[in-house]
TrEMBL record:
PANTHER family: 1,2-PHENYLACETYL-COA EPOXIDASE, SUBUNIT D-RELATED, FE-S PROTEIN MATURATION AUXILIARY FACTOR YITW. The keyword Oxidoreductase applies. Its EC number is 1.14.13.149. This is 1,2-phenylacetyl-CoA epoxidase subunit PaaD. Pfam families: FeS_assembly_P. Residues 50-126 form the MIP18 family-like domain. GO terms for molecular function: phenylacetyl-CoA 1,2-epoxidase activity. It is an enzyme of class 1 (oxidoreductase). It comes from Halomarina halobia. Residues 1-17 have a biased composition (Acidic residues).
């Protein structure tokens, strides 16, 4: 046997993984229960808050044609009216599907721009939050349908 051929006894070359086996960082194989308050969809919102939610529905994930709202990435929208008619301040609580998302900065900018776009909004801020952790259970029914049409099974 040459030094380049495989040995018959493959156990001899087994290497322990001190971190244990785990799934890819960007794929959720754990189907835990979603927090009972999620997904947030803007249902029941009125006035300027409704307009902000409508604008957020137009922001899509860059890899799949699915709204960030339908993906369950928006954890909340707060509209603070300013006295004197100076316009409202909007805060969006937003998460990502995983912490290392390569589209993080782009999505944050898109969500901020969308939240600031309705007339009457003087400024917007996006709070990136990690709790509760996002799970596929937070995807809305409409989001699931969009994902299936795109070829992703959820």
């Amino acid at each position: 046997m040459s030094e380049y051929e495989d040995a018959d006894d493959s156990d001899e070359f087994e290497v322990e993984d001190p971190t244990g086996s785990r799934a890819c960082a960007y794929t959720s194989y754990d189907r835990g229960e979603a927090h009972e308050e999620y997904p947030k969809t803007g249902r029941g919102a009125t006035g300027l808050e409704r307009e902000v939610w409508d604008a957020l529905y137009a922001v899509e994930d860059p890899e799949m044609p699915v709204s960030v709202v339908d993906l369950g990435l928006i954890y909340g929208v707060e509209v603070e009216e300013r006295p004197g008619g100076d316009g409202a301040r909007v805060t969006v609580r937003f998460t990502l599907t995983y912490t290392g998302c390569p589209a993080r900065e782009m999505l944050l900018a898109d969500v901020e721009a969308a939240a600031a776009s309705p007339e009457g909004v003087a400024g917007a801020e996006v709070e990136l939050v990690w709790s509760p952790p996002w799970s596929v259970d937070m995807v809305t029914d409409a989001g699931r349908e969009d994902l299936r049409e795109f070829g992703v099974s959820v």
